[in-house]
Structures are given as structure tokens and as C-alpha cells.
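dumping these here so i dont lose them again. two proteins, back to back, each one seq then C-alpha cells. dont judge the mess
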Amino acid sequence: MKVKLTYDNFKEIFDKSPMGILFYSKEGRLIDANPSALKITGTSSLKDCAKLNLFNKSYVASKKEELLKKGLIKFQTPLNFQNSGGDSHDILKKPKTIFIEWNIAAINAGYLVQIQDITASKNEEPLKSEDKYKRWFEDDLTGDFIATTCGQIIDCNPAFAEIYGFDNCEKAVESNICDFNRDDWINLITSLKIEYKIYDHQSWHKRPDGIQIHVVANVIGIFDDSDELVQVKGYVFDDTKRKQAEESLKESEEKYRLLFDEDLTGDFIATPEGEILECNPSFAEIYGFDDCNMALEWNILESNPFDWPYMVTRLKKEHKILGYQSWQRRSDGMRIHVVANVVGIFNDLNELIQVKGYVFDDTERKNAEENLINSKRQITEILDSIQDNFIALNYYWNFIYVNKCAAEYFGVDADDLIGQNLWERFPELVKTRCEETFRRTMETNKIQHFEAPSMYGTGEWFDFSVYPSAEGISIYWRDITERKKLKKDKNTLKIK
């Protein structure tokens, strides 16, 4: 049998419910609230909060989108009556903070809100396991503490008191950790509000007795339901001896760092994948960076995607490479030629873990070399294209260049003559006008011209021009047989 509830039934349930019930319009304006809601929020009458809007409070407004999407939201938040404003339900200025559990549902007429005071359950202490954790806390060799965000020590263990030079925990609790290093504590609190927990935080602290200590700390933020940082839980240990040894080592390394930084060679250390781990200013300059920090964000693989993997492969076998040359691209796209000595750094398993290198910019010399090669190539092409004979000899009478026509005249490949001695290769030229004139040009450094028959006795005649050069002499000769024949025939006709 179904029981039909009347308006009076609903009104009775509404008024007598121990849970606070509030009705809001679709715009968020308060329409009605039961006595429990007024009591929980500290409001004397509905009239006092009639103008309040559900979404004026930030912790509700931030969840509005979720409410409209899901139709129901549930959360907990504190209400501080001393700091209450005109946009909340806590308009009665009670001198305390209570914790409220909210259930907000979207209904056809607007919003149904149920609130419940859960302050009592929030304040209950987990007493059953307290003794066990207290023993761990006190026996821990790490200095454990709990402090306010202002640095006031709330609790600590004996190890913490000993680290900071206190005779016991009672005296330590009377201190403020902010006094050990004020700027460090302020920065730590700022970071905790963002990161929630911080590991391996290192800093120098000054104990109350004036002794400087270096501590390493892991700290965790304790937040309330409004995500406000209220306490700091930390674990510290005295790292002074290790830090002092580290700084002594650092001092001895400074002189080597100075040599490293002032070296005109580009020095670097990189991973096998090309990530720059360390470099000096010369390296940064060679690759077009303003400073070393910019170079450390770069990957040397970008300078030549094919060259670096090849070099790493060689290093795994050879362990070091000297005088390695390659064309690379700087960070700004400029093409440079570098010469490098690289050494592999290997672990105990003989695996390459780092590459140490020393590079210098060889672009200017390489460009000059290539320009010379191109110039010689152009001259070679020009000389090979002419239809007359041309050779070049150095001061030792060795062939340094033979063009195509000259090679055909000698009946050999041009490359077969390069480096050979003229008089040894062609002894038939010795004690001829050719030898006489060639030597005169070499000795006097003056241009010589003459005509001579072929050294092969074929009846051909050639017109020779011999020029001095920076390396020796150059000899150019062309066939004048037809001209000689015409001249002879002309002379014969004159006689007749």
C-alpha cells in the first residue's frame, strides 16, 4: 500500500531534519532554509541571509560547471566565522571555525543544498596507532619535525634537537626554524604551496650556538580542505661533512675550470645521443651560441645528423679518434668545417656513456683549400680544352701537370707522367735545343720562344713558348708543320 505524502508531511520533515536543507533558485538566490541550516551557518533568521547567492562563495562557484554537468556534487570546507564576509552563510560572527559537508543537487526549480556540521569527526585523534608512530618518530636517526608555515616548531624528535644543538626536544620546540635561515624558509614555503612536497632540499643553516651546518631535507606540506598550507612536516639530516669535502674538491677544480673556460679550443662533453652536458665558451662561440647555457640546451647531432652517429660507432671500437674532419651546421645555419679530437668515456661494462671532445673551427683554411682546388680545376679544364700541348715542371724537372694534348703527343696517360723526371723519362731531349732553352728559362726566369722539330723524328715542327712560374716552368708548344711546309714551298717557287 502506497502512502501519499502531503505538503504538511514534507514541511514537517523539512523543519525537523537534523541536516541543514536549503533551496536556491536557478540564479542561485536563497529561497528557503530549514532551522538546522540556520543553526549550522550561525544565522538567526532566513531574513538575514535572503540576499545571499549560492555562487558568491568561491568554493561553490569553482564547482558550478561540475554541478551542471553531473547534477550532484559533494565536498567539505571550513567556515571561519571571525573572517566571514557578506557573501557567505556564516553571517553570525562566531569566534570559531567549523567544518561543513556539502551535498548540492540540481533540480528543476533550482538547487537543493544539504549541509552537515562534521567538526566533531574532524577533530578526533587517531589514538590507537599514536604510540607506535611516536616510537618510530623518536627513534628515527633523521631529524623529524612539524612546524607552522611561520617556522614555529610544533613537534620534533631527539635527532632534530641534536642536529640543531639543543639539549632536548623541549628547548627545540621553543625555537623557530625560520631563524636558522630566514630566506631559505620563505622560499621553501613558497615552493611547497605549488609543489606540495619537496625532496633533497639542500641549504646552509646557522644553529642557535652559531655553528654553520649544511642540511638536506625532505619536506611535505599539510593542507586543509580549502587547499591552504597550514603545517610543514620535514625530515632533515646533517650533511655538513660531505658538503665541506665537496666544496674543498670544488676549490681544487676551479683552476682546471679556468683552463677549460679559457681554452681557445671548443671543449665539450656529450652523451652518445648528442646531448651537450658541458662545454666551454669557445665551443659555444664556434657553434654560434651567445653563451654556454644556450649551447647546453642544444644537441650536437643537429650539426650533422649523419656525421655524429658514424663517429660514435667508430668510438665504440677505437675509443679515441684524432684529427676527425667534417662539415657541420651551426645553430644559426651557418656552414663550418671543424677538426676534432674525440675520446670515449666507458663504464665498467665497456659501454660508451659519454663523449669528450676538442674541436676547432677550420672553416677559413678549408675554404681556402677548396678555393685553390676549384681554381686548379678550372685551370685544368681550360688547359685540357685547348688543342695545343701544355706541361708544367717543378724546379726538380718533375712533371706536375700534363694536359690532354701533351699526353697524346707523348703517347701515355697524363697521370703516368705526374711526378716523373723529364730527362729520365725522355732522355732523347738531353743535349737538344729543348734542354738548352728549358734550362735557360729556369735559370734566368725569362720567357723563351723557339722552334724545333719533333723529338720522335716524324718531320713535324713545333713552336715552343717557355714561361717561368712559381713552381718551375710551363711549356706550351703547337704544331707549325703546315706553316713550315707552306713557307718552304713559297721559297722554292721564288727560286724557280
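---- next one ----
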Amino acid sequence: MPPLTTVKQPVEEIGAAAARQLLAQMSGEQWNEPPVLPTTLVRRQSA
């Protein structure tokens, strides 16, 4: 079976954005639009 093509996501940035959003909500701030973070297509032999 060939290695699968995947999408690389910035896991640390996702976690940091989630923590910021949680803290904002806990302090009564309005919900903001979710951040758009970069992703990268990692092409392997399955593509």
C-alpha cells in the first residue's frame, strides 16, 4: 500500500487559537470569527 496523501495542519497554532477564544468567551467577550490558518497538502504516492 503506498503512503497516503495528507493535509498538514498547524496543530500548535490551532491549540493556541482555541485557548485564546476560550479565554475571551470566559471573560464575556463576543464570539469572533474562527481564525483561518494555513494548511499544506503533502502529496505522496497515493495521489
